[in-house]
Design a protein that fits this description.
Blueprint lengths: L7 E5 L4 H12 L3 E6 L2 H13 L3 E6 L5 H15 L4 E4 L2 E3 L8 E3 H9 L1 H4 L18
Parallel strand pairs: 1-2, 1-4, 2-3
Antiparallel strand pairs: 5-6
Helix pairs in contact: 3-4
Length: about 140
């Protein structure tokens, strides 16, 4: 049995590229995948393709540079599945606080929203390559 069976995995930027490939790979390994991207049509198409292949997938339209979208994304995931076991940041966001357009990893944009819930779950892991704003669970 796969160690990913029935785990809930949130993947940002999952409507194309590496995020889409990761979504398919996690679903094939038995994870329940929650896909997040700005483009609803492409995101829904990826979720549909995963379901047609026998996986479990749900799409939530969100822009990780908008804190309310991130909070809703995490809340909707936990509401739907009762947990969030892992997140795969495959998108980028723009930081307005730096005063100029700089692309940052989506991990920093989503860390504060997703950390509280997984900390309450036994066996959940959320890790990032960032030194600041990362969660230790």
């Amino acid at each position: 049995m796969s160690s990913l069976k029935d785990k809930v995995v949130l993947i940002t930027g999952s409507s194309s590229g590496i995020g889409r490939a990761a979504a398919h790979a996690f679903a094939e390994a038995g994870a329940k995948v929650v896909l997040a991207a700005r483009g609803a049509e492409r995101g829904e198409a990826v979720a549909q393709a995963i379901r047609e292949a026998g996986g479990e997938a749900r799409f939530i339209q969100a822009d990780v540079s908008v804190s309310d979208d991130v909070a809703r994304l995490v809340a909707d995931t936990v509401t739907a599945y009762g947990r969030l076991d892992a997140k795969i940041p495959s998108s980028a966001c723009v930081s307005a606080r730096l005063g100029f357009s700089t692309t940052l990893s989506a991990a920093k944009c989503t860390s504060s929203a997703s950390c509280p819930s997984p900390k309450r779950q036994l066996g959940s892991k959320i890790s990032e390559n960032q030194n600041e704003e990362s969660c230790a669970v």
